[in-house]
Every structure is written in structure tokens, then in C-alpha cells.
């Protein structure tokens, strides 16, 4: 295949390291920018330097985050620091790129802003909850005519610091203009494919009118709108590889239970989200395809990031703390080598499902496994991995990708993260922004806890021991929300 290039959403592992790892599953090398140009957490990337890097780097296919290009990354996109004129001018450089290199294929994704802001400290996290609710209530009162909610809307608005609400609304308006500009680039043939990805949301909210306007403007068939964000680079990578190889990717979903309710932070029923992700990755829903085992949730879906932490981060403690939903019996009914999307919880996997995969020996035959963040994130990673595994076959790169997701989604998020957050808060550090003074201690704690937990699994399950690799765990953004797994 011609050289592949990725301009990621930011430098978090799921946006930078994971796409590189999944490209290797298909036997491809994915070229990425110098990490220093991508920023980190509250420090935005350098779009102007990245534009120069794009112009100078040879590629046959480029997967582009328009939010990194326009603002300097996802977190930067939630603030109005970059003027609309500047953001749109940066997007305009893609026209010059396409004129200079008309054969390059540009697969791009543009984020429809979520319903809240970044919670980097106690104040913004508290305000963020109110802004999320404000967004829902304003849509329900103004668009849906539910005037009985007007008093709650007024009370919610009064609790939000005006500077934060004004900044949020200004960023929303600018980002919508960028979403529309992305559709214009697609219509002109500058972009070869566009994913409009809806970040954290709800069935009602300010995004609804924005989505409706975008759908009215969209033309042709080379675009999709669906729930997700951080998985989009992986999805478009898999789509680009499948299309370049001319390979079909039929998928047959299997659901543990009903899938007619939207998952947390999403606005479409889970079954529809699955359909849209299969389509976005370049697949088709068809009988006899790759089995996609979707471990569904019982509404309302639980957010593990806000759940009470385990008092000790051990495997037995996790199995005792989480209810057994019958995952083992259900998996036994799903035939063949399968891809597993664990959406039973938001922000972490179900230990009982992971135990069933490991105990039954099916993890070693797994085509993909994910259980991170939202259902859209999980589905995107699972399907991208399975699609690229279809291209590249079994390989050390495939098994390494499984291993990292097992450590991250299956162990860190549901078992270690809450425990670690509690320990950091006890020591005077913020779990949302650890700070330099506590960074080394936090990294040591997460590394020790994950290694101890992993040793437990290897001792109990031969399928886990078969994936074993030396690794190091850190907090890449100095907060507990995500973990970085470096394989040695």
C-alpha cells in the first residue's frame, strides 16, 4: 500500500500509539508527526508547524484530525482561544495540499462538540456537569417546547460561571462553522472521505440542531455521522486499508441483550450505533460475517469513572464487586473467532466477560477486544482491530494490541483507576490533574498495581500468560482518566 500518514486528534495513547499499533496488525507503517508538535493535555498542539509537516511529508493516504489542524487538538477545540477565521484558514490549506498532490487520498474526521467543557479541576468539573444539563434543558425548552423545564433551566444557568458558559457557547458556534467547512471540502473533492463524529452527548442537546443542519448540507455518499471521537483515527485507518486492498469486511452482530436504548453520552440506540460504526469502518452487516459480540448494558448504563472505587485492586475483589450478567453462557452461543465490544459499562470493561474470554481460551483467538470510554469508542476500536486483523492475519502485532487493550480496558479502567484516584486524593493530589510534584509517585503506583493484577491473571489463566510481555504503565496526561501502556 502507498505510505500512510496520520495527523492525530492529540497525543493520548488511543489517538497516537493505538493507530500505529493497529496499522502494524495489517503489516502497514503509519507515519505520525513529531510528538512535540501535538501538545499535551491543556497545552494545544502547533497547527501551523503541523501544516508545514503535512506539506513536506510524502503520503499516498492521510488520515486527518481537522480539530488538531484547526485548533491544536480536542481539548483546545472546547475553548474559544482560536478565532473562527484562523481555524477556517488552517482548513483552507488542505486545498493547496490537494492541488499540489492530487493523487493523495485524504480521509478526515471533524468533531461535533460535546455538551460540556473539559473538567481539569474541581471548578470546571462541577461547572461541566451543569453545562451538560444546561445544553439538554435548553434544547428541550426551546426546540422541543417542554416549557415546564424552564425553571430548572434558569436555575442551572445561574449556577454556571458566566465566563465558562460564554466560552462554551463561543466554541460551539465556531466548531459548527468548521464542521460545515469540512463538508464544503468534501463537496469540492479536497477530502475523499469525511467522518462527522459526535462527542459526548445525549438524545437532547444543542448538538441536535447542529446535526440537522449538517445532514441538510451533506452531499454524496463519502461521509458518515455517528457517535464517537477518539476512535475515529482507527476507524478511518481501517477503512482506508480495506478500500486500498479491495477487501470486503462482512460483520454479523450478536447482542447479549436488548440494544434499543442509547448508551451513556450518546444520542442513538446502541443497535444503530453498531450499524453506523460497521458502515464507517468500511464493513457491511451481513450473515456469516465476522462475529461481533456486543456485551450490552442494562439501562441506565453505569459510568465506572464515577462509580465507588474498589478498596483493593485485585482480580478477586473485582469479580466480587461486579455482578455476573451471564457473559460466559452468552459467549458460548457466539460461534467462531470473534471480535468483542464490551459496552456493559461506560468507561471500563466487565471483569466477568474478561474472565469468560480468558477461562474459555477464546482470548487467544479473539479478533479484537475493547471496553473503553463510550460505546462508540469501544465499537470503533473493536471493529478497526478486527478489520485490520482480517487483512494481516495472526501476528505478534495483533497479540500485542490485544494485550494492551486487556491491560487498559479490562484491568486499569474498571479495577485500578478508581482505587488510584482515591489514593491520590488522600495524598493531596488531584486525580484530574496530578501535577508535577505527584507525577512520579502516581506513575509508580499505577505501574505497581497493574503489574500485580496482571500477575494474578497469568497465574490463573493460561490464555493471559500466552499474551504476556514486559510493559510499563504511566499516566500520560497526568490524570487518572487514561493510562499509557508501553511494551518493552
Fold blueprint:
Blueprint: E1 4-7, H1 17-25, E2 30-31, H2 47-56, E3 61-65, H3 66-71, H4 74-77, H5 84-100, E4 105-112, H6 122-142, H7 150-159, H8 162-188, E5 193-198, H9 207-217, E6 223-227, H10 232-245, E7 250-255, H11 270-280, E8 284-285, E9 290-295, E10 302-303, H12 315-321, H13 327-332, E11 339-342, E12 345-346, H14 351-359, E13 368-370, H15 375-392, H16 396-426, H17 436-460, H18 462-465, E14 471-474, E15 484-487
Parallel strand pairs: 1-2, 1-3, 3-4, 4-5, 5-6, 7-8, 7-9, 9-11, 10-12, 11-13
Antiparallel strand pairs: 14-15
Description:
With 488 residues, the chain is an alpha/beta fold. The protein has 2 domains: 4-245; 250-487, no CATH class. The protein has 18 helices and 15 strands. It has helices at 17-25, 47-56, 66-71, 74-77, 84-100, 122-142, 150-159, 162-188, 207-217, 232-245, 270-280, 315-321, 327-332, 351-359, 375-392, 396-426, 436-460, 462-465; strands spanning 4-7, 30-31, 61-65, 105-112, 193-198, 223-227, 250-255, 284-285, 290-295, 302-303, 339-342, 345-346, 368-370, 471-474, 484-487. The strands form 4 sheets. It has a 6-stranded parallel β-sheet with strand order 2-1-3-4-5-6, with helices on both faces. Helix 6 (122-142) packs antiparallel against helix 7 (150-159) and helix 11 (270-280) packs parallel to helix 15 (375-392). The model has no long low-confidence stretch (mean pLDDT 97).
Amino acid at each position: 500500500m502507498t505510505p500512510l500518514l496520520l495527523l492525530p486528534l492529540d497525543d493520548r495513547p488511543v489517538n497516537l500509539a493505538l493507530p500505529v499499533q493497529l496499522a502494524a496488525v495489517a503489516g502497514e507503517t503509519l507515519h505520525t508527526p513529531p510528538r512535540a508538535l501535538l501538545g499535551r493535555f491543556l497545552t494545544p498542539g502547533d497547527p501551523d508547524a503541523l501544516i508545514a509537516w503535512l506539506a513536506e511529508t510524502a503520503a499516498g493516504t492521510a488520515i486527518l484530525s481537522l480539530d488538531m489542524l484547526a485548533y491544536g487538538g480536542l481539548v483546545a477545540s472546547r475553548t474559544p482561544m482560536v478565532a473562527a477565521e484562523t481555524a477556517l484558514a488552517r482548513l483552507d490549506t488542505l486545498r493547496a495540499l490537494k492541488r499540489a498532490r492530487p493523487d493523495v487520498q485524504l480521509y478526515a474526521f471533524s468533531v461535533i462538540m460535546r455538551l460540556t467543557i473539559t473538567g481539569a479541576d474541581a471548578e470546571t468539573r462541577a461547572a461541566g456537569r451543569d453545562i451538560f444539563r444546561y445544553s439538554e434543558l435548553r434544547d428541550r425548552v426551546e426546540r422541543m417546547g417542554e416549557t415546564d423545564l424552564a425553571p430548572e433551566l434558569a436555575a442551572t444557568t445561574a449556577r454556571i460561571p458566566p465566563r465558562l458558559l460564554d466560552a462554551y457557547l463561543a466554541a460551539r458556534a465556531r466548531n459548527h462553522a468548521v464542521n460545515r467547512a469540512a463538508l464544503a471540502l468534501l463537496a469540492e473533492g479536497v477530502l475523499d472521505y469525511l467522518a462527522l463524529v459526535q462527542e459526548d452527548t445525549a438524545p437532547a442537546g444543542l448538538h441536535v440542531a447542529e446535526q440537522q443542519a449538517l445532514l441538510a448540507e451533506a452531499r454524496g455518499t463519502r461521509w458518515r455521522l455517528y457517535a464517537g471521537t477518539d476512535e475515529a483515527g482507527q476507524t478511518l485507518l481501517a477503512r482506508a486499508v480495506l478500500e486500498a486492498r479491495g477487501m470486503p469486511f462482512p460483520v454479523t452482530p450478536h447482542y447479549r441483550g436488548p440494544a434499543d436504548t442509547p448508551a451513556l453520552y450518546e444520542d442513538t440506540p446502541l443497535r444503530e450505533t453498531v450499524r453506523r460504526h460497521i458502515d464507517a469502518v468500511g464493513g457491511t452487516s451481513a450473515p456469516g460475517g465476522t462475529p461481533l459480540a456486543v456485551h450490552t448494558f442494562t439501562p441506565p448504563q453505569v459510568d465506572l469513572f464515577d462509580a465507588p472505587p474498589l478498596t483493593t485492586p485485585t482480580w478477586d475483589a473485582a469479580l466480587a464487586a461486579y455482578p455476573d450478567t451471564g457473559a460466559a453462557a452468552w459467549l458460548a452461543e457466539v460461534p467462531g473467532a470473534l471480535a468483542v465490544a464490551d459496552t456493559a459499562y461506560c468507561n471500563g470493561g466487565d471483569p466477568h466477560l474478561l474472565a469468560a474470554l480468558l477461562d474459555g481460551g477464546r482470548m487467544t483467538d479473539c479478533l479484537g477486544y475493547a471496553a473503553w470510554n463510550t460505546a462508540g469508542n469501544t465499537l470503533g476500536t473493536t471493529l478497526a482491530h478486527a478489520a485490520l486483523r482480517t487483512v494481516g492475519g495472526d501476528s505478534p502485532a495483533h497479540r500485542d494490541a490485544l494485550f494492551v487493550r486487556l491491560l487498559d480496558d479490562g484491568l486499569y479502567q474498571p479495577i485500578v483507576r478508581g482505587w488510584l484516584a482515591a489514593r491520590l486524593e488522600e495524598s493531596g493530589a488531584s486525580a484530574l490533574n496530578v501535577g508535577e510534584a505527584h507525577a512520579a509517585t502516581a506513575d509508580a503506583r499505577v505501574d505497581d498495581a497493574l503489574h500485580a493484577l496482571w500477575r494474578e491473571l497469568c497465574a490463573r489463566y493460561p490464555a493471559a500468560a500466552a499474551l504476556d510481555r514486559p510493559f510499563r504503565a504511566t499516566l500520560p496526561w497526568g490524570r487518572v482518566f487514561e493510562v499509557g501502556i508501553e511494551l518493552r
